[in-house]
Amino acid sequence: MDILESVKMAATTLVANKLRSSLTMLGIMIGNASVIAMVGIGQGAQRLASEQFEALGPNVLFVVPGSQATRNTTLEVPKTLVLEDARAIATQVPSVKEVAPQINTRQLVTYRNKNTNATILGTTSDYLSVRSFDVETGRFITEQDIKRSNQVVMLGPELAKKLFDNQNPIGEQLRIKNLSFQVVGIMKPKGSALGDNPDETVYVPITTVANRIVGRTSPYGLEVTAISLSAKDEDSTGAAKFQVENLLRLRHKINGEDDFTVRSQKDLLTIVNTITSGLTLMLAAIAAISLFVGGIGVMNIMLVSVTERTQEIGLRKAIGAQEQDILIQFIIEAVILSAAGGLFGTMLGVGGISLVSAFSPLKASISPVAVIVAVSVSGGIGLFFGVVPARRAAKLDPIVALRSA
């Protein structure tokens, strides 16, 4: 039998049973759409994370207390970095341009009858340039504020809106831990990144936070939560990391495991890319299960079709149809079901990715590889799961088939 004739007969049979064919394709559609959407969303998450880390600058380093092993095994953050460490890095490491130590805490911030819990970030004037932040109105922390432990604050724009609505907050007084602070500046919007939202942060001179809000908790000096620093240029980042590690080992008299960790923007980006790639692969694998289930649905329906069409098969074989003709027709029917399901599933997945991109910060993208693989797999599933019922139909004895009718 001609292949084109087999395709026409298969299409006619499937159209004659619209509801059954549609329900059979549904499993393939859901599987394809899930795979394409999950891969696209996963790649969007990876791209978003990359953009957020790249916004930090290619030459930014972060020094945090405790080794990686210590931070993974203890709930309490080690207290091994002090303000003098930051000053030593600024004066003794030639490849470092600027250093910005910081102390983080959460406190209740009150303005008149409004209050909210917010992150209090004590830092220095270099924080702006190290972290690529800008001031919208007013000013940032000055060296004079740090020397005098002035009770002044800069607000993130979202926090300023929450506390002051449309009122100009510059010059107003708010309270933190029952202490009065004057608002001297509003930061430019930065956007949240990895659970941290600088737009809802209160920026305070680091000495003010240490002396009047959290107190001094380290016997070795003024304890800091982290130290951000910028290398002179991107090429100096590796040298800066090496020099900072050696300096801190000398200052902390370390012979064994480090009590600090130095990470670059590239290190953090590598970690995040590894995590997001793993999650994308896991989500795609879970979604692919529905493709397998859809294939089983195709085989089930084709087996039912063989049973229902026993008389037709017997009649065709009685008038000269070969086993190969019957085999090809049923395989073509299964492939058409799977390929059509794959096509509609691709359209559904692409539509889902477009909606995610339009209504969320994730810049989800359509992966041509995922589309090709999903459609190919769905067609292959039809071929694979269609073989068993097709062989069963081809092997039917025409006399038995006509009698059973």
3D architecture notes:
It is found in: Cell membrane. This protein is α+β, with helices and mostly antiparallel strands and 405 residues long. The chain is 58% helix and 17% strand. The chain has a six-stranded mixed β-barrel. Helix 2 (18-54) crosses helix 12. The chain is elongated, with a radius of gyration of 33 Å. The relative contact order is 0.19. The mean pLDDT is 80.
Give a short summary of the structure.
The chain is an alpha+beta fold.
- Counting DSSP H or I runs of 4 or more residues, the number of helices is 14
Helix content: 55-70%
Unreliable stretches (pLDDT < 50, length at least 5) are: none
Shape: elongated
Mean pLDDT: 80
Number of domains: 2
What is the SS-derived class?
alpha+beta
Protein name: ABC transporter permease
InterPro entries: ABC3_permease_C, MacB_PCD, Macrolide_Exporter_MacB
Family: Belongs to the ABC-4 integral membrane protein family.
Membrane topology: Multi-pass membrane protein
List keywords for this structure.
405 residues, alpha+beta, 2 domains, 6-stranded mixed barrel, 14 helices, 58% helix, elongated, membrane, ABC transporter permease, transmembrane, cell membrane, ABC3_permease_C
Record the SSE blueprint:
Layout: H1 3-16, H2 18-54, E1 60-65, H3 68-73, H4 83-92, E2 96-111, E3 114-123, H5 127-130, E4 135-138, H6 143-148, E5 152-155, H7 157-164, E6 173-176, E7 179-187, E8 201-205, H8 206-214, E9 226-231, H9 237-251, E10 260-264, H10 265-308, H11 310-318, H12 323-359, H13 368-394, H14 398-404
Parallel strand pairs: 3-8, 5-7
Antiparallel strand pairs: 1-9, 1-10, 2-3, 2-6, 2-9, 4-7, 5-8, 6-7
Helix pairs in contact: 1-12, 2-10, 2-12, 2-13, 4-9, 10-12, 10-13, 11-14, 12-13
